[in-house]
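User: Run a structure prediction on this.
Assistant: Running it now.
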Amino acid sequence: MNIPTPHNKAKAGDIAKTVLMPGDPLRAKFIAENYLEDVVCFNTVRNMLGFTGKYKGKTVSVMGSGMGMASIGIYSYELYNFYDVDNIIRIGSAGGIADNIMLRDIVIGMGASTNSNYAAQYKLPGTFAPIADFGLLRKAVETGEKLGIKTVVGNILSSDTFYDDNKEANLLWKKMNVLCVEMEAAALYMNAARAGKKALCILTISDHVFTGEALSAEDRQNTFRDMMEIALEIA
């Protein structure tokens, strides 16, 4: 077996079949401390914290992914292929692009457009469309309805650049009805597809690219709970 890895000190059986992946490892710690019972920390390598515990009797893991497709590409690949994880649910923040996307909205990425060259490794004779697992997506929407949490489903952008030299880039994506921009989902969806596993990206809108609106740190913590609770319920 290829475990432990250079990035994850967990042993076989330490990680649940479903992993929630926020970008920030401290958010993983927050979820473990506030939602899980009987928690065990399985990883501290590079401070990319990972925990396994119980949520309403179900075994669930939560682990940070870091920022960008290169980072989540490594961690999700290892979880799928080395630790026998079946489902990864990314729970992160995003910047709104579409006019109808507001602060605090919960966006579920049905598809993840990207400006990344991540798919080049597969040597495909065309353009691959990274998409979510429909079963997880449907459960997330239904769970949001049960909890009274509004969700918006559509196409998101996974960008390799946070500071883009092309200042018109987001406007061009907006013309294609892309809802928001983040930095990880496309790589996660591709890794899942290649491994024959399942993935979903649930996002909270923390700021808006065109209006300049942004949530405070306190607002982010309170709003992000909605996203966390949807993910935990479907785990």
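The longest helix spans residues 217-234.
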